[in-house]
Amino acid sequence: MGAILWGKSEEDVNTFAARLRIPACTGGLRPSKEHIVIPWKVEEYRGDCSLMLNAPSFVKRAGDRQAMERILGLWAIPHELTKSALYKVLIFQSEPLVLRKRQLWTASGGQEGTDSAERGRWTALELDHTRPLVRKLCRLAVKALYAAGLDYGEVGLHWNDKGEEAVTTIVPYPELTRSDQEKFIQAIQRFSDQLDVSAKVPDSFMIGADLEFVICRENGGIMMADRLFGKQGSIGSDSIWSRDRKMIYPLAEIRPKPGRTPEELVRSIRSTLLKAARKAPKPELIWKAGGMPQGRLELGGHLHFSGTQMNHFLMRALDNYAALPLILIEDETTSRRRPRFGFPGDVRWKSHGGFEYRTLPSWIVSPRAAKGVCALAYVIVHHYWKLQDRPLDQPETLRDYMEGHKSGLYSTVRSLWKQLEQTSTYKQYEHYLTPLKRQIFSKKSWNEQRDIRCTWMLPPYEPVTISTSPRGS
């Protein structure tokens, strides 16, 4: 599998083609399953766009202010689409390439001000992600571009009336300086070079997770997890900021050893939970997982992948074929974690070269859920090029997802699940996936109030035998 550049005119294509090691074309295009199409300044196409970056329908929608206000609103992304930008971020596939700031000058000259924003010139800033402002601007811009359904473009940013960074523009095909062109071309080439690697999952592939739960007292209070488990290691804790701006550690977190298969990861999760239960054998406490099982504490079940390349096709496949089906079994309180947490496309790159998918709630509520999620993620990573439906890019589906309105999603999820069932890897893990499917379509939510030591049969409830055989919950 390779990439092909498609331009509206020869002039558009020639801007990039001479410096790219990929084929280019103009005019009519016949879609091919052998190529990922990278269009430039193409705003209309009626063929199959499933293997196309910046699909023309989303390019067109980006120019509709009312449509974009609705989308950004559903994502809870601050926006002021009538303001002029103070910063601009050029992005390709969630990678910030260039950050620019407008130098503002008053009519008298020399002084920075806001009266003559359109007269300022743009200056490139260093993309130093250790600086909080740079990190915040880039994360917001990347999130906005992904929310718009786009794969590359330029996002303009300013501050809204609340003093927050806010999106002002989303431009799919921005005007590029010579240096911008060079960085954009390098990003396209990197993407193209990775396609052959991405098309087949290598033997070095690993799947891992970090999984949070909260430890509750009988009176409803929270036991600080760091008092039981410390902070680091395979059994530790995660922090939040308290109301008085102090860092506290109420979230217990297990970091099991990753595996090459779902069976290995499930075995590692069970083993790590067992160690945690033996480390803190307190029957008077209740261990809760899920999305928001206690108060305002949001829990995550983050999946880690290495040995495979992250791109928007995989991100959207995980969103639509994993995150979307799973809300049909989440507890009623879980939807409250969105859109602050649990929004589509929440990904972070890791120092080991892999990536972390952070959208899902803590799915260790039961062995059934854990086995289903591990197998589901494994299937998606192995077959995502064939799993390219994007219902979450439609405002109605996105609203139902964000607000937890399950009734309108069953037919959509049933269609997605049928595609999963057509893959060879699904058949390999049918014994893990069938119980999850049955729970999804029986309209039964998982129970976030039940002690996970009970569902996993951990002490003090029952002696545990390390096994990956299916269990109910």
TrEMBL record:
Q: Which InterPro entries match?
A: COOH-NH2_lig
Kindly give the Pfam families that the UniProt entry links to this protein: COOH-NH2_lig
Q: What is this protein called?
A: PhiEco32-like amidoligase-type 2 protein
